[in-house]
Amino acid sequence: MTAFKNWGIWIAFIVLLLFLFYPLDYYISKPGGAYEISPIVEVENQDTDDEGELRLLTIALSKATPATYLYQLWRDPDHLMEANQIRRENEDDEAYEVRQLKLMSNSQINAIQVAYEQTGNEYTITNNGLFIYSVVKGSPADGKLQPGDRIINLEGAQEISEAVLQELLATKKVGDRIELTVQRDGQTRQVEITLGSIPEIPGRPAVGISYQQDRQIATERNVVFHSEEIGGPSAGLMFTLEIMNQLLDEDLTKGYRIAGTGEILQDGTVGRIGGVDLKVVAAADEQVDFMFAPDDELSEDVLAKNPDLETNYQMAVRTATEENLDIEIVPVKTIQDALEYLEKLPPKS
């Protein structure tokens, strides 16, 4: 009887541990931080007498356990997400992390490019090949390529680009072989791929990867980012403003504490991002003077399929109102909108 009782205690203990710590395929998102950008971005020979602050905003993302899942389901189900709402299909945690860091890298390149164009400084863009985001399990590339690889040569082509790869595949058929030169962890290797097909289009040759052009930017005044633990593209707008603020003698902040979020595209457009409602809370917690939010345009087709969908700006304003947050939300469609708003601001007394 005593032995049976002891086994019961151990089983109950194990069940409790699983309830508290077993990771589910769900994620919980919460407000993150509002981090000052000047220690994160460093422009060579920068202007250093600015009085205000520019801050980027983050959200905190954690895997749910049975205990936290039930609590979140009761308290705030809107921020309880299935894995496929965070990760792409066939994307594991490692591939997700690789993609997030690459999106951050892309946002930094766009930020430098836009900031240098706005300030009249010169830059050079170099094509470094194709960056691999993910590899489809069971595809021809599975086991031969991996997320983070960079294709630097394709069957001897003088230039490697998304268009070049698509044009090459259009001349091939399922079962043909192609040779790639790939960089991984600083080493170069040759990889031979036997083309397969994709379920969506039977008979069409495919490698089984998602990829994007890999760009590098060079400037006369070196720009360094210390953002190793931050992923995603949403800091692009604020990176752009910080780089400009360090390049220019004038103080763009005029003494204000300014937070913001939004992807920066190559043409200066401020793109939509996720989690803006949580970022408003993070900004308000830091008592910033105001916050820039993307005023993205939603097409009629998108609204027809998602009639309750809001722009980032609308969601930010609604959140600030519902949560009774003391923060001003400023809508921006482009970098020029942000700059015009800052130019009209009187210096903070």
What secondary-structure arrangement, pairings included, does this model have?
Blueprint: H1 2-21, E1 26-36, E2 41-43, E3 53-63, H2 66-75, E4 80-82, H3 83-86, H4 93-119, E5 123-135, E6 150-154, H5 162-170, E7 177-184, E8 187-194, E9 196-198, E10 201-206, E11 209-219, E12 223-225, H6 236-247, E13 257-260, E14 263-264, E15 270-271, H7 276-285, E16 290-294, H8 300-305, H9 312-322, E17 328-332, H10 335-344
Helix pairs in contact: 4-6, 7-9
Mean pLDDT: 89
| Secondary-structure class | alpha+beta
Q: Briefly, what CATH class of the largest domain?
A: Alpha Beta
Order of helices and strands: HEEEHEHHEEHEEEEEEHEEEHEHHEH
Find the CATH topology of the largest domain. Answer: Ribosomal Protein S5, domain 2
> What is the number of helices?
10
How many E-type strands? 17
Return the domain count.
2
Q: How large is the share of residues in beta strands?
A: 25-35%
Give the overall form: globular
Distance between the termini: 78 Å
Q: CATH architecture of the largest domain, please? A: 2-Layer Sandwich
Question: How does this structure look, described?
Answer:
The protein contains 10 helices and 17 strands. Helix 4 (93-119) runs parallel beside helix 6 (236-247) and helix 7 crosses helix 9 (312-322). It is 34% helix and 30% strand. It has 2 domains: 31-58 and 90-120 and 222-344, Ribosomal Protein S5, domain 2, CATH 3.30.230; 126-215, Roll (Pdz3 Domain). The protein has 349 residues and is α+β, with helices and mostly antiparallel strands. The protein starts with a helix and ends in a 5-residue tail after the last helix. It has helices spanning 2-21, 66-75, 83-86, 93-119, 162-170, 236-247, 276-285, 300-305, 312-322, 335-344, and strands spanning 26-36, 41-43, 53-63, 80-82, 123-135, 150-154, 177-184, 187-194, 196-198, 201-206, 209-219, 223-225, 257-260, 263-264, 270-271, 290-294, 328-332. The strands form 5 sheets. A 6-stranded mixed beta sheet has the order 4-1-3-13-16-17, with helices on both faces. It has a 5-stranded antiparallel beta sheet with strand order 8-7-6-5-11, with helices on both faces. It is globular and about 70 Å long. The model has no long low-confidence stretch (mean pLDDT 89). It comes from Chryseomicrobium palamuruense. Residues 227-345 form the Lon proteolytic domain. InterPro entries: Lon_proteolytic, Lon_Prtase, PDZ, PDZ_sf, Ribosomal_Su5_D2-typ_SF, Ribsml_uS5_D2-typ_fold_subgr.
